[in-house]
Write a structure and sequence with these properties.
single chain, 272 residues, mainly beta, 8-stranded antiparallel β-barrel, 19 strands, globular
């Protein structure tokens, strides 16, 4: 009888431990990818040259990727939920790669193994070029324990470039994310001929008082900005809107307006 009571207690402790372990899976933060492995069941192909950053906010995620070999860029944004046993469900609602973009919602099941300074995610079945593969990615945590009013996922609502007396409206879809002292942006641009291109960039940001941040670009589709520092004037309009002004090297000014992405806005967009 004593042995039975002992094992019941042990099972209860183990069950509570496993439950707490699942509950403690926190994805919030900024992560830099170390490698990506694609498997078709017979062959594994490992990629170590991809420059990819991923930011998880409290309920949203965004990633940006630059392939230095062919200069192809990609990004995606979506919401996520954390389930049991390391399961993270991502609901991507916008993605862009090279000369194509998609607004078709796509769900992914990620099986995540988390450690203090890194995590590994496995997607058992993902469609790539009309064929299913197993995708494994390893990330290490970057950034600092920094909180900012800008932390979160934002969508650009309007942007113009001003140079002298000329004002040009930018024809693009752009998202931007902030978290853990890192930022990233992804844009789908349509030129005057209707040609689509994808551009991304990511780096660190440091508040310079209440109305300005300093952005250091670490990687980008546009090599001219890599390693460059930009002073960005910020104006918050409540907690869900902000505008930014960037003074460019060619004496032009970029004026951008953003709206915070929320679950309510996503739901409204799907119901239209």
């Amino acid at each position: 009888m004593k042995n039975l009571i002992f094992w019941c207690i042990m099972i209860s402790i183990i069950s509570c431990h496993n439950s707490n372990t699942s509950a403690k899976l926190k994805m919030e933060g900024a992560y830099l990818m170390e490698y990506q492995t694609v498997s078709d069941g017979t062959k594994d192909t490992k990629y170590t040259d991809l420059a990819q950053l991923k930011i998880y906010t409290d309920s949203f995620m965004m990633y940006t990727q630059v392939n230095p070999i062919d200069s192809i860029s990609a990004f995606g944004v979506g919401s996520y939920t954390v389930g049991d046993s390391g399961l993270v469900k991502e609901h991507d609602f916008y993605s862009s790669r090279d000369t194509a973009f998609s607004t078709n919602p796509t769900d992914f099941n990620l099986y995540v193994t988390m450690s203090p300074d890194s995590y590994k995610q496995v997607i058992p079945k993902i469609m790539i070029n009309s064929q299913y593969f197993k995708l494994t990615e390893e990330y290490h945590k970057v950034g600092i324990d920094q909180k900012s009013d800008l932390d979160g996922l934002w969508k650009e609502t309007k942007s113009v470039t001003v140079k002298g007396n000329d004002t040009t409206k930018n024809n693009r879809t752009q998202y931007k994310a902030f978290g853990s002292g890192y930022f990233m942006y992804g844009q789908t641009v349509k030129d005057q001929s209707g040609q689509i291109s994808t551009g991304v960039g990511f780096g660190t940001f440091t508040p310079q008082g209440q109305d300005q941040i300093k952005e250091l670009d670490l990687n980008s589709t546009y090599p001219i900005v890599v390693g460059q520092t930009f002073m960005v004037d910020i104006k918050m309009d409540g907690s869900d809107h902000y505008s930014q002004i960037v003074h460019n090297a060619d004496s032009s000014i970029s004026l951008e307006f953003y709206e915070r992405v929320s679950g309510a806005r996503i739901h409204a967009a799907y119901c239209r």
